[in-house]
Amino acid sequence: MFNSKIERLSQLLSHSQKGLVFVDLKSKQILYINSIAIEQLEIKNPKSLQVENIFCDFDLLVSEIHTHPQSKSEYKWFLKKLNSEKIPVSVHYSSLTDFFDSDTEIYAITINWNQMHSEDHLEIVDHLEIPFIQTDLAGNLQYANNRFIELFRLSPNKIESYTIFDVLILPENLKNEILKRNTKFLIEVDHSVENSITFQLQSFITMQEGKPNGISLLLLDLSELQNAERIIKYGEDKLRTFFATMNNGFVIINKDAQILEIAPIFKFLLFQVFAFEVGEDIFHFFDEKMKSKLMEVLSSVIENQNSQTTEFDYLLLGEEKTFEIRFIPVRRYDPNDKKILLVFSDITEAKRKDRQLIESMKFASIGEIAAGLAHEINNPLQSALLYLDDLITVDEADQNERRNILKKIESANLRIRDLVKALLDLGRMESPNRDIVSPYYILVRTSELVEVSCRKKNISFTRHAGPNLPGIFVRWQEIEQVLINCVVNSINALSEMETARQFPKIELGIDLVKIQKKEWVVFSVEDNGPGIDDDTLEKVFLPLFTTRRNKQGTGLGLSISKKIIAEHGGEIYIKTKEGTGAKVEIYLPAHTDENG
Fold first, then answer.
1. Could you say which residues form the signal peptide (predicted)?
2. Judging by beta carbons within 10 Å of its beta carbon (0-12, 13-18, 19+), is residue 140 exposed, middle or buried?
3. Rounded to an integer, what distance in angstroms lies between the CA atom of residue 50 and that of residue 38?
4. Can you tell me the distance from the alpha carbon of 476 to that of 169, in angstroms, rounded to the nearest whole number?
5. pLDDT surpassing 80 at residue 469
6. Are the C-beta atoms of 266 and 245 separated by less than 8 Å?
């Protein structure tokens, strides 16, 4: 029965990670010892053990137990291995009399292997890069790790001969602080190799059984942190300088267009006039129509998480200015944290230069087709002169015949007038405003100007238009200019082929297509010329790239055309196969209810 109780108790306490021993003080027998204690004490035969085989100063232990039968605190003690080596431990004991007969003196003793953990701890501390020491309450060194010894060039064998104040040069008030309470302050340490190092000194009064028993002190190297702070500050200064030299304004807003942050840039003129403030609606400076447009762009950017750009005109200090806003989603780890970076740019000068480039491209196109138009004008002019000569030299009495001659003269002059008007319209400065225009109107006007040049080069020119075409909201002169430029490119490609096509042809067309529930008007220019190789195709939209450098090619036509179409919310593509021809497709949003 007695043994079964011992076994049952040991099973109940077997989960403990500490050493566990049941001792009978009367018989001085070890009734039970767990595997952890057996392993630590290297016991070979645990079944026949006397108490004095394990505990040093057993009589003193018995006296302590009798004085405090139910110990709630841990007492320092020594155990011994079979080779008589002493192991410092702390023990906690409690009586098991309630489980056995009242006249027994059986105690459960739990063992904390504090020396084992202390050795592990010191080994870890020794390898720390943080200088660390332990002292008594008077500041006498008891332990110093390797980093501390190296830093202060101490003799490892004489650690206990130093005081903390021998090593650290400190003012008197700080010396008293360290000895009395936990402290934290900065000190400079001179080092022959590393020069002066800034440390944060932290000291702690260590406690044992509720009483101070020593001081632990460590030094945190702040030099790397200070270097990092300097690097960050330098980066911030460089970034601030970079922003200050840019003609841009930066604002971060939320989904409701409320300003969250503003870049501290005062060079950007618009921000000085608008005087944006954190927390206000950034679009409240605009009229309702523009505000609605900007909110639509903001909603689209938040929903699709893609960047978008829009423009607006503003009368600033009496001068008409054009500004661009780039909406850029700020990607965060939290998908619900929707923030948008707005980049404001003054593009007034850029737009002016774009206009100049477009005008340059326009007059280059006029030069390309002028010779053909001169020939086209000369034919009806010669016919009209012949008919006039008949009227002057022949006295035609028949009124019907006379009327027919005058009609022919009128027809020839109307043809001349239309050609000249088309040429003048092409050279005229276009309106900066967009209008809803029939794409067929643009097709006809373009055809009148280019078909003459095609005839002169013996190129068959045809055109086609799909039914029920909706209008497009554009600056129509610019779209006409893009189409003329594409046709002129086809004319040059066909007329400059080393082996001429037997039946060269160009077709200009318009169709309506629907892509992802959105309708597009698609202009196309297709030829059966030499086509474009892959290497050239990758570069055709780059500014100043041309394959006609020795033939006065500027390399601006397609790059400007792409910019014009992009400003109208469209796209331009080239489909080609080398040796068989090329097709340019220009997509523009149809002005329909479906497209909003």
1. none
2. middle
3. 14
4. 84
5. yes
6. no
Of 41, 42, 112, 110, nearest to 79 (Cα)? Answer: 41
Supply the angle between the helices 476-495 and 557-567 in degrees, to the nearest 10: 150
pTM over 0.85: no
Cβ proximity of 307 and 328 under 8 Å: yes
State the Cα–Cα distance between residues 498 and 101, nearest whole angstrom: 121
Q: What is the pLDDT of residue 511?
A: 93
Q: What is the mean pLDDT of residues 567-592?
A: 88
Q: What is the DSSP letter of 499?
A: S
Beta-carbon contacts of residue 125 (< 8 Å; ≥ 6 apart): 132, 145
- CA pair distance 458, 500, nearest whole angstrom: 11
Region of residue 360 (left: phi > 0; alpha: psi -120 to 50; beta: else): alpha
Q: Where are the beta strands (DSSP E) in 136-194?
A: 141-144, 183-191
Question: Residue 241: CB partners within 8 Å, gap ≥ 6?
Answer: none
> Average of pLDDT values for 512-518?
86
CA distances from 8 to 3, 24, 507 (A): 9, 17, 101
Q: What percent of the chain has pLDDT over 70?
A: 72
At CA 579, angle to CA 576 and CA 580, rounded to 5?
60
